[in-house]
Amino acid sequence: MDKRNLRFMDVRQKLGLTQVEVAKNVGLSQSMIAHIEAGNKEPSKLYKLRIASLFSVSVEWLFYEQLYEGGVSYESKNSERLSNHS
């Protein structure tokens, strides 16, 4: 299963932000942003809040829209959608 955070990358790119710009705005390194996008690392709750605020989306939508547990998919009912950023 591909674990990349495609939603994160898509919103960042649609907002015209580089990984360096996101990193500077939220207090992380560019390499950490790259790890988050690649799905290798997960930011702490504080940084999830900062990133979601920078992107003007909810933390749930950005990081938890669809969860998989025990082979079962659980999708969020959050109304904030990527189409709002088109």
Descriptive report:
The chain is 50% helix and 9% strand. The protein is mostly helical and 86 residues long. The protein has a single domain (6-80), classed as 434 Repressor (Amino-terminal Domain) (Orthogonal Bundle). Residues 76-86 have low confidence and may be disordered.
Short structural summary:
Pfam families: HTH_3 (PF01381). The chain has helices spanning 6-14, 19-26, 30-38, 45-55, 59-64, and strands at 66-69, 72-75.
Topology:
Elements: H1 6-14, H2 19-26, H3 30-38, H4 45-55, H5 59-64, E1 66-69, E2 72-75
Helix pairs in contact: 2-3
Poorly predicted sequence stretches spanning 5 or more consecutive residues: 76-86
Number of domain modules: 1
Mean pLDDT: 81
Count every beta strand, where a strand is a DSSP E run of 2 or more residues. 2
State the CATH class: Mainly Alpha
- Count every helix, treating DSSP H or I runs of 4 or more residues as helices: 5
What is the level-2 CATH architecture name? Orthogonal Bundle
Shape: globular
Alpha-beta classification? mainly alpha
Order of helices and strands: HHHHHEE
CATH topology: 434 Repressor (Amino-terminal Domain)
Q: Characteristics of this structure?
A:
Lambda_DNA-bd_dom_sf, two-stranded antiparallel ribbon, HTH cro/C1-type domain-containing protein, 434 Repressor (Amino-terminal Domain), disordered C terminus, mainly alpha, 86 residues, 5 helices
